[in-house]
Amino acid sequence: MSTSAVSLAAALTLSLAAAPAASAACENAGASTENGTTRGLVRATLCVLNAQRARHDLGALRLNRKLSTAAGRHSRAMVREHFFSHSSPTGATFVDRIRATGYLSGGWSWRVGENIAYGSGSRSTPRSIGRAWMNSPGHRANILSDSFGSIGIGIASGTPVGTAGATYTTDFGRRG
After folding, report:
1. Would you tell me how many other CB atoms lie within 10 Å of the CB of residue 40?
2. What pTM, to 2 d.p., does this model score?
């Protein structure tokens, strides 16, 4: 049996509240693709999201290599092919991308979800992206879902609209 959770895609035009204190302690949370490494940005994004989960008494998400492969490929494709959607221009869904990594193989049940975002300048940092997602009901639901235990994070330099910045994909999962 399979289920999937999908959040609505939203660019970073969401209203941005003050950064949560918990994410202030996340190393590189204020960095961007211009002054940080991809690995550092991924770790900072994980820290920011797990800080939110901790504030809501939820367990930490664990970074998963296969989910990260799916997320990274999608972020790079959105920048390269200039689209912003959970589905590719060819119609492949995030479930298709996750399945292609082998993440769903061997499980008798699974649940997956995805958040995407992009931003420029100060709105392209892990802290800003995390804040925007938390201000969006669908994205927030994925971040705070106790149905997910694993996450893949993909960050690409550039945006789907061709400007400087960063494009983020987070793929959430749990297999049974």
Report:
1. 16
2. 0.87
